[in-house]
């Protein structure tokens, strides 16, 4: 029996041509695997059929949307995950999930290798291959675009020569990756960071400059996970979809940033992630209400570490697993309601409540009924500032 390779298939030009290209270059049978992570657009059945028409011996479609929401987006939300404080890890979150299915299908169908359509310049190649290595150390990873020199020009020629049933997307100058957590747009005129983004780039968000009547939503969380919007229950996936719709209508979550890739390149990225940004803001507000100061401060450091690990392709690593345990433990009391006002590109928290709130009105109030004994503050500050006072005396004496 011929050896087999399972290719992560998107239905686009590169991976469609990649099927024949891989088969020609390696002699292996190519199995196509298309994973639905809520990227929308084409019918997954059309994508499945196209892979067969392009020469795949088998074509598998996985609807992983709920899994993505539950097992990847909710951990990211609990971690308030933002790479370099700006990027909610849209692509970085989908790669380990796709890699998990690649490894699973490879095992089930007796393949000895997997393949993906990434170039050699980005993070996604690292994420796919590092995840596969961690899950199935015996599988080999092949990248036709990178390792077998499949350039875009060659792909177009190949598709024409072999009469492959793909619409020429050569006209689209952007490299776009999307899923239910957001959309990433790169290349084209954006490669000059001085060029402002144009309205055309966006799909999940309306122009935030067009101010509409504000929308107010109440998001209910339970142990760090949003479970309802305005009292209506949703799955994690459903919550993210609903928030994309609500926050997207007000242009929330547009991001334009120069970002540091793992491979050393700085790249200009335009993202839109309306649901992700609104949910992270709501989640952070609920944590502010329910998590004690030191734990919150320590967690913010863990969040940055977690985000770096996931950005760098180490989803299936020991450190990431251990940080997840810590983060999960912090979420025990992160339950309650957050009211968000959506307008003009912003999601603003306007209300917060929780049965596990640490906010004590009687301690906080400046009105009568105050239970905080202000006379204790005087002695507290004496002792708190004692080290400063002693060292300042020394510094002055030594001058
Ligand atoms: N720079 C982002 C990241 O590394 C987005 C990558 C988008 N991928 C793509 N093939 N356009 O996560």
Please provide a written account of the structure.
With 399 residues, the protein is of the alpha/beta class. The chain folds into two domains: 164 residues, Rossmann fold (3-Layer(aba) Sandwich), CATH 3.40.50.620; 178 residues, Argininosuccinate synthetase, chain A, domain 2, CATH 3.90.1260. It is 43% helix and 20% strand. The strands form three sheets. A five-stranded parallel sheet has the order 3-2-1-4-5, with helices on both faces. Strands 10-9-8-13-14 form a five-stranded antiparallel sheet. The longest helix has 19 residues. The protein binds arginine. Arginine binds next to helix 4, strand 6 and strand 7.
Based on the model shown, name its key terms.
Argininosuccinate synthetase, chain A, domain 2; 14 helices; alpha/beta; Rossmann fold; binds arginine; 399 residues; 43% helix
């Amino acid at each position: 029996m011929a050896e087999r390779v399972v290719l992560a298939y998107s239905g686009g030009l590169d991976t469609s041509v990649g099927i024949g290209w891989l088969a020609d270059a390696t002699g292996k049978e190519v199995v196509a695997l298309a994973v639905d992570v809520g990227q929308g657009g084409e019918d997954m059945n059309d994508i499945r059929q196209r892979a067969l028409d392009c020469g795949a011996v088998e074509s598998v479609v996985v609807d992983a949307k709920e899994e993505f929401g539950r097992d990847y987006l909710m951990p990211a939300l609990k971690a308030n995950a933002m790479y370099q404080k700006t990027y909610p890890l849209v692509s970085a979150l989908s790669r380990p999930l796709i890699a998990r299915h690649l490894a699973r299908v490879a095992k089930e169908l007796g393949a000895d290798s997997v393949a993906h359509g990434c170039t050699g310049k980005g993070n996604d190649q690292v994420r796919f291959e590092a995840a596969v290595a961690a899950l199935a150390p015996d599988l080999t990873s092949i990248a036709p675009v990178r390792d077998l020199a499949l350039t875009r020009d060659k792909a177009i020629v190949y598709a024409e020569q072999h009469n492959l049933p793909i619409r020429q997307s050569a006209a689209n100058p952007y490299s776009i990756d999307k899923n239910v957590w957001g959309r990433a747009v790169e290349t084209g005129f954006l490669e000059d960071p001085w060029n402002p983004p144009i309205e055309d780039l966006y799909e999940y968000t309306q122009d935030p400059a067009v101010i509409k009547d504000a929308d107010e939503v109440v998001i209910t969380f339970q142990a760090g996970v949003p479970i309802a919007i305005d009292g209506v229950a949703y799955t994690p996936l459903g919550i993210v979809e609903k928030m994309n719709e609500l926050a997207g209508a007000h242009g929330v979550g547009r991001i334009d940033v120069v970002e540091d890739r793992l491979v050393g390149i700085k790249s200009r990225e335009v993202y839109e992630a309306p649901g992700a940004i609104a949910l992270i803001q709501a989640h952070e507000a609920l944590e502010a209400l329910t998590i004690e100061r030191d734990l919150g401060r320590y967690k913010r450091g863990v969040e940055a570490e977690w985000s770096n690990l996931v950005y760098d392709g180490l989803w299936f690593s020991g450190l990431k697993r251990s940080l997840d345990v810590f983060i999960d433990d912090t979420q025990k009391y992160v339950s309650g309601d957050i009211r968000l006002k959506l307008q003009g590109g912003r999601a603003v928290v306007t209300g917060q409540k929780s049965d596990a709130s640490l906010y004590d009105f009687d301690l906080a109030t400046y009105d009568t009924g105050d239970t905080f004994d202000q006379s204790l503050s005087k002695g507290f500050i004496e002792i708190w500032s004692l080290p400063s006072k002693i060292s300042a005396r020394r510094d002055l004496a030594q001058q």
